[in-house]
Amino acid sequence: MNEEQDQVLVRRTLRGDKKAFEMIVRKYQRPLLNYVGRMVGERELALDFTQDVFVRAYASLRSFEPQYKFSTWLFKIASNLVIDHWRKKKLPAFSLSEPLGEDGDCLTVDVPDDEPAVARKFELAELRQRIETALEKLPGPLRELFVWRHVNELSYEEMAEIKGLPLGTIKNRVFQAKEMVRRLLQEMS
Amino acid sequence: MNCFKINDIYDYIEGSLSSERREELERHLSVCPRCRRAVEDRKLIAGAAFGLPPLAIPDDFTDRVMARIAPAKVKPPVWLFILACASSFLALTAMVMNASGRSALGVISGASHSFWEYVKSAAVLTAKVATLLSLAGKTVRPLLEAASKGLSLLTSFIHPGLQVLILVVAICLVVSLFFGMKKKLSLGD
Description:
The complex is a heterodimer.
Chain A: H1 3-14, H2 18-40, H3 43-59, H4 70-88, H5 102-105, H6 124-137, H7 140-150, H8 156-163, H9 167-188
Helix pairs in contact in A: 1-2, 2-3, 2-4, 2-7, 3-4, 4-8, 6-9, 7-9, 8-9
Chain B: H1 6-14, H2 19-29, H3 33-50, H4 61-69, H5 78-100, H6 104-157, H7 160-185
């Protein structure tokens, strides 16, 4: 995603050029829906939320600071919407900066054990299907990082900027998310 | 055999391990089937996760977003609002001066004179109200204290059950008086 191009589109939008904002929507609708969809689960709700992200972004475009990446700013708006949704639904959530507890924190300090490999047991399409199912069972904040990393292909730096957390914390949490997915795949096999 | 931690294995898969550490890990992999399997398994899962199918976007999604932002305007900056207010004030002043046929200096001095008169009257009025309130406080306070003492003395002599009965009778009396007065004086609802 070309950052310079984004900045130009933002400036044009601020000058009243609606076509420029339409280009922004076309560029980011798919990545945002891929993220929001996996966060909220329901398709129609995900479409509504993704629309809301763009409406909010448009309304507060003047507050966007050009020294940051525009895509990061959009994902931050989306993430706030998702967190509000989790709170309203009273879904269990935790802060990424806090320890996960005995079940989660041991995941990244362990050395490999003698568990058999799980990925070879499935065909690629089936493995992907099972990863999607495993994602649904992952705690929201870890699912968010997993999706950003693998679906949206965000860098650890971008994720740290969105969440306002140290790079090391984010990296650790992503590894935990991956290990949890692997453990869930093992349970499914 | 010193196996590597899962974090190192993920760093190795993502290519973010230092060259020295990478070589060390690769040497270890050549002799440790357990770590080799761990790397291979996590590589396969990561590969499958990077190719998760995208969620379908409806054809009219962009149009729907643009329709929602059409009535909403990009918020104007605060300085623009202040500038507009200041310009309106200057225009109004010019109109008043023009209508009164007075010079700018005359209008300004007249306005400041009237303003000063208002301030003086308001200060005198505030002082009078404060004096009245403090006098009223001084008069009513001893009365209230005497009433409270009398009431507590009275209640210490009367049985609590009887007190409740008196209270109920008093409430009934007040309510019936109210309705009686309402009928007599045709107060309406």
